[in-house]
User: What shape does this take?
Amino acid sequence: MATTAVNATRPGPPTRARAWFSRFRERETWFAYAFILPWAFGFVVLTAGPMIASFYFSLTNYGVEQIGGFAETEYVGAENYSRLLDDGKIPLALKNTFIYTGMMVPATMVVALALASILLRIGRAGDFFRTVFYLPQITPPVAVGILILVLFNGSYGVVNRALEALPFIEQGPFWTTDPSWIKPSLAIMSVWAVGGTMVIYLAALRGVPQHLYEAAAMDGASAFRRFKDVTLPMISPALFFTFIILTIAGLNTFTEVYTAYFGAGSTGAEEPEAALMYAIYLFRQAFQFFNMGYAAAMAWLFFVIVMAVTLLNILGTRRFVFYQGAQR
Assistant: This one.
C-alpha cells in the first residue's frame, strides 16, 4: 500500500507541450532563432511587406498625376488590371521579353557547357582561364549596356569590323538600330557574361564518376555517345537548375537594355520598340509616368507569368533530370 501511495504522488511523464517548451529553451535553439532573425526581419520588411503593399496599391489610383500635383489616392478595384488588357504595349513588351529569353537561355547553356568541358581537359591552366572567363560576370551591368553600343555599332563597332574582315561578308548588320538584330545583339552580350553558369557546369562535370566513361568505352561507345548517354544524364540536375535560373533572369532583364536604349547611355535616337522589355515598361510607368497603381498591377501580372513559366518548366523537364540514388 505504501509503495502504491508513493507511486501515485510521483509526477507523471511530461506532456508534449512541456517537452516542446523544454527544447525551445535550450541554448542551441535560441542560437538558431538568433541566426534566423535577420533573414526573417529582412523577408518581412523588404519582401513580404512590399509585396502586400504593391497588391493594395494595384487596386488604387496611387501616383496618378493631374494638374497641380498628384490626385488623391482612391480605391479603384480591378480598374488597373482591366487597363492591362487595353494597353497595346503590354503584348509587345512580353513578346520582346520572351524572344530575348528564348535566345539567351539556350545560347548561354551551350557556350557555358562547351567552356566547362574545355577547362576540364586542360589541367592546371584551367584555373587561370576559369578566372578569365568569370571576370565578365562581375562587370557592372551599366558598363555592359554601354559596351553594347560600342561593340555592336553598325558603322564602327568592333563586331562589324571583325565580320567585315571575313572574305564572304561585305557589311555587318546594324545591330543597335535594326529591329531584327536588336534582341540577338542583347542575347550575345548576355552570353558574354557566362562565367557563373560555366563554374556550375565545371563542378558538375568533375562529379561524374569516371568508371562510367570507362564502361562505355569498353562497350564501344563513341565520344558523342559517351557525352549523350553518360555526361548529359549525370549533369542534368545542374542543367535543370541553370535552365530555371537563366529563364527567370531573362524574363527580368532590365539594366543592360535600359542603359543602352532608354537611359543616359543611349544614343539619343528614337527609342526602338524592339528593345522594350516588360521590366523596362513597368519601370517607366512607375518612375517616369508616375502611374504607381498601374505599375503595381503590371508587377503582379508579371509575377503570375513568371511563376507559371517556372512551373511549366519544372513539370515539363523534371522527367529528364537524373538524380543519383533517387528512388524510381
About this structure: Strands lie at 65-66, 69-70. The longest helix spans residues 89-121.
